[in-house]
Every structure is written in C-alpha cells, then in structure tokens.
Amino acid sequence: MGSFEPNEKLELSQAFKVAYRQVKQIAHRQKLRFYSLDTLNTTAIVHEAYMKLERNHSSLYEGETHFFRLAAKAIRQLLINYAEYKMAEKRGKGVKADDIAAFEGKISLSEESAESLLQLNEALRELEKLSPRQFQLVEARFFGGMTIEDAAESLGVSPATAKRDWTFAKTWLYSRINKA
C-alpha cells in the first residue's frame, strides 16, 4: 500500500484521491481473478464503491488499512448486489436496486459467475459467524487485494497468525462451496 502518511486521518474525498489508483487496481484484479469472461468496467466499480462509502461511512478514515478494508467491503457489496439482481432477472423478477442502475451497460456477469459469487457470499456469511476475524481477512485479501502483511496490520494480528487464518479460511471456504 503506502499511499497514506503514517497515522494520517483523512475524509473520504481526500482518502479517495490518495488511493484512487490502488482502488482501481483492486477492482481490475477482481475482474481478472473472478470475472475474466464477463464484462466489468473497473472504473464504474471504483466510482460506485466511492458513492457507497460516501453514503454509508461519513467518519474519518483511521489510516490506509481502515480505508482499504471499507473499500473492500463496498466492492463486495456491489458485486453481490449485482449478482442477486442478475439471478432475480433470470427468474423473471424485474426488481432494480439503486446500486444496479449505474451499472447498466458497464457490467455483465454470466449466470455462472453470478451463481459462484452468491455461493461464495453464502459461505462467507457462515464463516463470519464461525470466525469474524477470518471473515474479515478473506474480505480484505479477496475483495480488497491486501497482502497478508497489510491485512494482518488492519486486523491487529501478526503476519504469522494471518497466514494461518488465511490457510484455514481458504480450505474451509473451498470445502463449504464444493459441498453445495
């Protein structure tokens, strides 16, 4: 990371200016990792994440890791909302969420990707109940693109603990998703 000054507290607009390029890289990595065959406009994801943060988190950001954890959460929520919309559309329900309106023509998930994302989300909800810290680690790493070291710092644990948690969480999620 390294975009923020140590112990710097920023308002959203300031934090976003400092971290814009990194947030866009995170969104791009999501595209390549999970949605390689689908249409996903990373700039649209970044701008929608900003608007979601603006609506839901008006406080100062307590440094870089705090900002990136909340950005990861916003990106996850946007993608889940779109996957839910996609699957509702498949079932003939024409419900249109506010978050989805801005994506028209900029994002297109296949039914397979939408289903996979919803399976992952369901497994993550179960993991959150089992181990909130491991859930936060997965969210930070998978949706936020954080390294083990950055995620460990954001969670207040050692990198060794984060590595153990990451290994357990990946294994648990894999077995949970493949059980379904």
Give a quick precis of the structure.
It is built from eight helices and two strands; from the N terminus they run H-E-H-H-H-E-H-H-H-H. It is mainly α and 180 residues long.
- How does the major sheet shape up? 2 strands, antiparallel
Strand content: under 5%
Radius of gyration: 16 Å
Q: Tell me the distance between the termini.
A: 36 Å
Number of domains: 1
Shape by Cα distribution: globular
- By DSSP, the count of extended strands is 2
Order of helices and strands: HEHHHEHHHH
Uncertain spans, ≥5 residues at pLDDT below 50?
none
Helix content: over 70%
Structural category is mainly alpha
Strand numbers in spatial order across the main sheet: 1-2
Report the mean per-residue pLDDT as an integer.
Answer: 77
Count of helix runs: 8
Walk me through this protein's architecture.
- It is built from 8 helices and 2 strands.
- It is mainly α.
- The chain has one domain (12-179).
- It has a two-stranded antiparallel sheet with strand order 1-2.
- Helix 1 packs across helix 2.
What topology emerges from the helices and strands here?
Layout: H1 12-34, E1 39-40, H2 42-56, H3 64-90, H4 98-101, E2 107-108, H5 111-130, H6 132-143, H7 148-155, H8 159-179
Helix pairs in contact: 1-2, 1-3, 2-3, 3-5, 3-6, 5-6, 5-8, 6-7, 6-8, 7-8
Give me some keywords for this one.
globular, 180 residues, 2% strand, 2 strands, mainly alpha, two-stranded antiparallel ribbon
